[in-house]
Design brief:
six-stranded antiparallel sheet, ten-stranded mixed sheet, globular
Amino acid sequence: MTPASPTPIGLTPDSLTVFAPQGMLGYGIPERSMRLGMERRPDVLAVDAGSIDPGPHYLGAGTSFTNRRSVAKDLEMILDAAHAQRIPVLIGSAGGAGGDAHLDWLIEIYREICRERGYRFRTARISAELDRDWLRRRLADGAISPLDHDIALMPGHLDRATRIVGQMGYEPFMRAIESGAEVVIAGRAFDPAMMGAHALLRGFDRGLTVHMGKLLECGGAAAYPRHGSDGLLATLHRDSFTVEPPNPDKVCTVASVAAHSLYERANPYHMEFPGGAIDLHATRFEQESERVVRISGTRYVAAQHYTIKLEGVECVGYRTIAIAGVRDPILIAHFDDYVANIRSRVAERYPDGYTLNIHSYGRNGVMGPIEAARAEPPFEIGLVFEVIADDPDTSAAVLALTRSAALHVTYPGRKAIAGNLAFPFSPSDIPVGPVYEFTIHHLVKTEDPCSPFAMDLFTP
């Protein structure tokens, strides 16, 4: 495969087309969309492979929330297309959470595909797991601050963390491209970074480049109708960029594209990232054709300090759950008494050393005590009993007693002696395993955006 890109780095083409064939590696790529997207002769294939959205477990456990077979199928399609047209591939947040275990998991899949097909891509592996000693020095220098909270990072957080990753920006990808990489597979990364690294190397406007990547990161989510995993094409020009879906059954509209500015943001006009922010106050969305939207006016604002977002987790115990349903109107009418009696019964045997949660779906299972809609009582309630304890045996023992108490405790007006719960599964008690908690969600200042992220080159 030669070269890494159709236009050598350093030249300044008037446009650059990036194809994101899906919003998440492993979520599926429609074959027609892939074929039509590649017929547009994109300059770069880029895909996001992870997210913090599934919670802390996957970072702590070192496992992926995406399915191996599905990831392999999608990656095969991407590599086949890249090889056929000799264009580069950039993948970020490998394996879901982007730690070294996740990165190596994806690279193993990648190597298998390359061996089967005889592909010999020059490949860059970029680690996002950060050196603990470097973080300790940064902490001692006062260079680490909380992100969206007020809990200061302490040395103990670094010591206890199961895994710590940094969300790399554009620069590590740019370094890999300049090193001759045709395929870049990176750990935890700022979602749009792999979409715009080539553009920044070729001198395109940074504000437009970041905004383009923000739309591409979710694949076809900026197009209507929003159903299923699909792709998005973006063509960047010197003063604007356009987006359109390769799927002819979908369209990009001003509303669908502008609405994406609300995605994962408290402020739709301002989005921060490593090294700066984009300002959308002057952004213009124009319907260029029935299926194409042109975006212009997005402005880049440089940060005073270059910062990297840190994500770290630690194990806080082991979880066991049981799921049940209740349809007894007498129990439902006295539900608070019922729950209080369960807790009292369990506390008699196990006064401490665990956390017991009783989630009541259909009543206030989502919003909890701040639920505003409390009109009529529900006709049924779905219950999830959850116990977290320091070890699996204690967790299982407390859950077993909780389940038994839920079947047998009294409540006002009760007529039956048991059987007031319906359990959908046997066995009813489900050991979920270790419980992880985000304890590091901070920013670290750095003078060099690349040095915290180790890179090595190889040919599969």
